[in-house]
Amino acid sequence: MFQYFLIGFLVLAGCFDLRSYKIPNGLIVIGMVIGLTASLYSKGWQGILESVFGIGFPIVLLFVLHQIRVLGAGDIKLFSVIGGMIGPSVWIVMLNSFLVGGVLATVHMMCHHSLVNRLKWFWNYLLTCWRTRQIIPYNSGFDQGNTKNTIHFSIAVLIGYLIWLLERQVTV
Fold first, then answer.
1. How far is the CA of 41 from the CAs of 1, 2, 44, 45, 84, in angstroms?
2. Over 24-92, what HEC string results?
3. Of 145, 141, 87, whose CA–CA distance to 109 is shortest?
């Protein structure tokens, strides 16, 4: 039952993201509270522990990607809401989402005829990090208002979650 709530939640978050490249913190808080409540209701205190792990895991794992400006904070918070609902299995949703995100980004860059330039840019970024022995913020142009090199990753998160649900239905 809560998986359908989560689909609706992710669609709503995606709408906000599509409109403004932002996901409201109030929406995230509501999702986390519902996730914790659902976990307590369905599994008791063990569910709360799983939920807390599911909330914290994406934050810890993806913090560096946010720091170097590859992933937005809202996307990480979406993974945390999902983790609050499904617990440790959030890593599978994350993996699915990054695979989907890679496909979406490739298609997006092909449509904007920027795939080769962005790959060169990324290669130079990696070389700069290697040479300086520092991880520096990645410049996609988003901070300057250029969104042509940016995808709405919340869509990839939604699709990644739907794939996870489908995988669970097939294996059951």
1. 12, 11, 6, 9, 13
2. CHHHHHHHHHHHHHHHHHHHHHHHHHHHHHHHHHHHHHHHHHHHCCCCCHHHHHHHHHHHHHHHHHHHH
3. 141
Kindly report, residue by residue over 95-149, the tens digit of the pLDDT.
999 999 999 999 998 998 878 888 888 888 889 889 988 877 777 655 666 667 7
pTM: 0.86
CA of residue 80 relative to chain centroid, distance = 9
Q: Which residues touch 149 (CB under 8 Å, ≥6 apart)?
A: 109, 112, 114, 118, 140, 141, 142
pLDDT tens digits, 40-55: 888 888 989 999 999 9
Q: Is 7 helix (H, G, I), strand (E, B) or coil?
A: helix
Nearest C-alpha neighbor of 59 from the set 39, 40, 83 = 83
Task: Tell which residue, 142, 167, 163, has the closest CA to residue 72.
Answer: 142
**Extents of the domains making up the chain:** 2-171
